[in-house]
TrEMBL record:
PANTHER family referenced in this protein's UniProt entry, alphabetically: PENTATRICOPEPTIDE REPEAT-CONTAINING PROTEIN, TETRATRICOPEPTIDE-LIKE HELICAL DOMAIN-CONTAINING PROTEIN-RELATED
GO terms for MF: RNA binding
Record keywords: Repeat
Gene3D superfamilies noted in UniProt: Tetratricopeptide repeat domain (1.25.40.10)
Domain of life: Eukaryota
Name of the featured protein: Pentatricopeptide repeat-containing protein
Organism: Thlaspi arvense
Coiled coil regions in record: none
Placement of PPR repeats on the sequence: 22-56, 124-158, 225-259
GO BP terms: RNA modification
InterPro entries: PPR_At4g14850-like_plant (IPR046960), PPR_rpt (IPR002885), TPR-like_helical_dom_sf (IPR011990)
Length: 285
């Protein structure tokens, strides 16, 4: 309970006072550190488990791996991967999928990613999603789109996670035709009102230069979040619609959504395109 609310210190105090700690207590604590972005502490705890002869479960390793998102975590990822090989868990369906995702986020070495993918023995929704997201994260977006097609041909049901990954890949490719096809599938699959998917659509259309479609998706949303606003403002800025970007920013300031750093960077880009950068920065206030 404490870990879920990021009260990690209180959680650790309760943990330390437990006379006997079972695997569920250890895993909960590891998860808590992971969710609090304290990967160093999470690794220390897993090493302590091993030192005391407490064998981490597949869930423990999955939770730990899921906390790795940055290049600085790549060494930890490799260490846990080696441990999984030692324990014969490398081919576990969920661990293999998690490894694929983590390697694509923490490590740009394609050989490592391909090796992980080759160890996947069961291709279900989780596996396909991990591989599609991995290719997208690594910038191998053509492969991400091909995997998406293969997934559908295999009869695997796609979900919002699948769509967000393939939309990201399609936007990077600036392939408007494929993007529109994916949008049709989104509607047919019943995900047209999912906020994550809608944000993916806005970003995809904006990257493809179809600003009218991006704005259409934005206006169709019941409730926009900061990602929705940023995606549209960035789209305006990147394609030379500087004044429209500034107008959208002014509208955002009147909404309940607060601008963030990405918003301000997009607006500065827009201002530079229309000659407002040195003339009037008061719009950022």
């Amino acid at each position: 309970m404490y870990s879920k609310f990021s009260a990690i210190d209180a959680s650790r105090k309760v943990f330390n006072e437990m006379p006997e700690k079972n695997i569920f207590a250890w895993t909960s604590m590891v998860t808590g550190y992971g969710q609090s972005h304290q990967t160093d502490e999470a690794m220390v705890l897993v090493r302590e488990m091993l030192r005391l002869g407490v064998k981490p479960s597949e869930v423990t390793y999955t939770c730990l791996l899921s906390s790795f998102h940055y290049p600085d975590d790549s060494d930890y990822c490799r260490q846990i991967h080696c441990r999984l090989i030692y324990e014969g868990l490398e081919s576990d369906i969920y661990l293999a999928a998690t490894l694929a995702t983590v390697y694509s986020e923490c490590n740009t070495n394609l050989e490592d990613f391909y090796r992980i993918c080759s160890n996947i023995t069961i291709w279900d929704q989780v596996s396909w999603n991990a591989v599609i997201a991995g290719f997208s994260n690594l910038g191998i977006c053509g492969e991400a789109v091909l995997c998406f097609r293969d997934m559908r041909q295999a009869g695997i049901v796609v979900d919002f996670f699948t769509f967000t990954s393939v939309l990201k890949a399609t936007g990077t490719l600036s392939d408007l035709e494929v993007g529109r096809q994916v949008h049709c599938l989104v509607i047919k699959s019943g995900y047209a009102s999912d906020t994550y998917v809608q944000n993916g659509l806005i970003s995809m259309y904006a990257r493809c230069g179809s600003i009218s479609n991006a704005k259409g998706v934005f206006l169709s949303m019941d409730k926009q979040d900061v990602i929705s606003w940023n995606s549209l403002i960035s789209g305006f800025a990147q394609h030379g619609y500087g004044r429209e970007a500034v107008e959208m920013f002014e509208e955002m300031k009147r909404s309940v959504v607060k601008p963030d750093l990405i918003t301000f960077l997009a607006v500065l880009t827009a201002c530079s395109h229309v000659g407002l950068l040195n003339k009037d920065l008061s719009i950022l206030i």
